[in-house]
Amino acid sequence: MADAAEVVRIRDAVPGDGDALAELHARSRAVYYGAGGHDVAAVPDEGYREAWRGMVVDSRLAVLVAVVGDDIVGVLTLDANGVFPTNAPDETRVRLVGIFVEPDRWSSGVGSALMGRFVSVARRADAVGEVDVWERNSRAIRFYERHGWTRDGTSRPGPAGADYVGFVHLP
């Protein structure tokens, strides 16, 4: 648990954040994929770093970082194209690409702070939030469910023979 004196600030990512975000993401996904029986590198290679540098400046994405003191401890990425129409009348959606938190900061409120920002964005747009979660990431599934997300019945293939399952958050 984070020290009560620690304040989580959320800010827009800046171009210089790319490498730190690549490192954070690699560490986080290595832990949750590893817990599900799928090994991935915990240290990013140059291609991985370049991908994160590109995401930070990609106008199609909004990348927000959670900061405690001077340390980046979490990241939220969402589709910056904003809301998009669906086949359902009068429904729009906003896509949560992902939330990742430093593993030693899990259960400290960082993920909840990032989720609060996403829910705020979706509510302002009167949009349904949507996200895919690896079905073996039981920790993340519990996190999303605690924050009001429900499975929508969709899925797509994922690594290690386990699907990504769709969740929605209603406005």
Report on the structure:
The chain has 171 residues and is of the alpha+beta class. It is built from four helices and eight strands; from the N terminus they run βααββββαβαββ. It has helices spanning 18-35, 46-57, 110-124, 138-146; strands at 8-12, 61-68, 71-79, 84-85, 92-101, 128-134, 150-156, 164-169. Strands 1, 2, 3, 4, 5, 6, 7 and 8 form an eight-stranded mixed β-sheet that branches. α3 (110-124) links the parallel β5 and β6. α1 (18-35) crosses α2 (46-57). The longest helix is centred in the first third of the chain and has 18 residues, at 18-35. The relative contact order is 0.16.
Topology at a glance:
Elements: E1 8-12, H1 18-35, H2 46-57, E2 61-68, E3 71-79, E4 84-85, E5 92-101, H3 110-124, E6 128-134, H4 138-146, E7 150-156, E8 164-169
Parallel strand pairs: 5-6
Antiparallel strand pairs: 1-2, 2-3, 3-5, 4-5, 6-8, 7-8
